[in-house]
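Archive maintenance. Older records in this collection stored only the sequence; we are now back-filling the structure field for every entry so that each record is complete. The fields below show one back-filled record exactly as it appears after the update. Entries are processed alphabetically, and Sucrose transporter 1 is next in the queue.

ARCHIVE ENTRY
Title: Sucrose transporter 1
Organism field: Urochloa decumbens
Length field: 495
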Amino acid sequence: MCSYHHGSFPIDGSCGSPGDVVLICPLFLCTSYNYVQTLGLSHALTSFMWLCGPIAGLVVQPLVGLYSDKCTARWGRRRPFILTGCLLICLAVVIVGFSSDIGAALGDTKEECSLYHGPRWHAAIVYVLGFWLLDFSNNTVQGPARALMADLSGHHGPSAANSIFCSWMALGNILGYSSGSTNNWHKWFPFLKTKACCEACANLKGAFLVAVVFLIFCLTITLIFAREVPFKGNQNLPTKANGEVEAEPSGPLAVFQGFKNLPTGMPSVLLVTGLTWLSWFPFILYDTDWMGREIYHGDPKGTNAQVAAFDEGVRVGSFGLLLNSIVLGFSSFLIEPMCRKVGPRLVWVTSNFMVCMAMAATALISYWSLKDYHGYVQDAITASTSIKAVCLILFAFLGVPLAILYSVPFAVTAQLAASKGGGQGLCTGVLNISIVIPQVIIALGAGPWDALFGKGNIPAFGIASGFALIGGIVGLFLLPKISKRQFRAVSGGGH
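Back-filled structure field:
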């Protein structure tokens, strides 16, 4: 499986957030790490590069969502943004994949890449610029894509629409992790290897070019079949009591002005969403690192045996993520019936309690794995077959609450926006802010917190369990209650 590990190369906001071009995200995670090392990027520059995710999620998606709500294009409100974003994604992927060749053309070393191991700054700069473009483009697509699903859900309701959306995300994850798990792209397409681009680089090129083909195919299907009714501007705006049309906010600050016009119950949704993601991000950021350190007792900077153990743990953890995606796909079909039967609020809080137990289980499993050893995690170099199996079961189990996380909050948001008469794009963008802020908190705080307890990942998972418990309790009392009848009657608000 892919040799990417989150502990030293943290996941970014776009790939961590739901609703993205999910084939490219896991593919990027699986193929890019080894390639980045060949460019000579420093750890500081790498960290700077990954700041793009939170920035893009905090700024781009709410703005794009707002403007897509008001777009009067002949194609509809959402598809112009989806088209623009996807074309930019294709451009960004090509820039990233061919950054070594572009860097060589701009003046990097002319030595054979297999012989030269120094920094290639032109290629590194091109790579970072392409990466930032990819992140901003992803965030341009994800908000309108979610809003389009809500717009077109019709009598089926937002729960069914977001469940379908979630199932396709799972399929994208499976394809991405599978494509990124092979290192044979350079063998299948030998012309991708050049003097400036060795095996890791050629593998990145091959996987990305295939992803671009899939993306263009899916984009074409969306543009042809997801037909929208063009927005008529002021004709669709709500009116005041005296019959005058309410003026909509405009300009870059319109998102913040729009906060005061959020639907009733939306602040509670934002609060519970933030708590929920606080419980998820430690696992998202450090899952494979946890496998490499606490379960396989390796150290990426230790002896040869420790490095080998760590890499093996990362590979098995990546296989666990693949199992997680498979369970996520199957579970997505059960969410809509569960929401209709017991209501989305109960489904949501139940998933929080499931995560609470799962995160607590990671600490117990780690203790089980390390009980015969003393000192730091890195001092142990053996592994248990039974513990490995339990960990893979845990990865797979988490696919169920992850499917709920990727659909129910967005379905509830769509329902609240529909009850207000529209604004799907803005509400979805604002919801993303409550996802980005927890990511920044965990990314900045988990490392120092873990350092206080022996430099392992167990403390972060302990905190995650606590946040999941708090999120479940808060959600039980504060989340708006949406009846089964409301879920059946909602029209999506976009026609």
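Update note: The chain has a mean pLDDT of 75. Residues 39 and 124 are 6 Å apart (CA to CA).
Entry marked complete.
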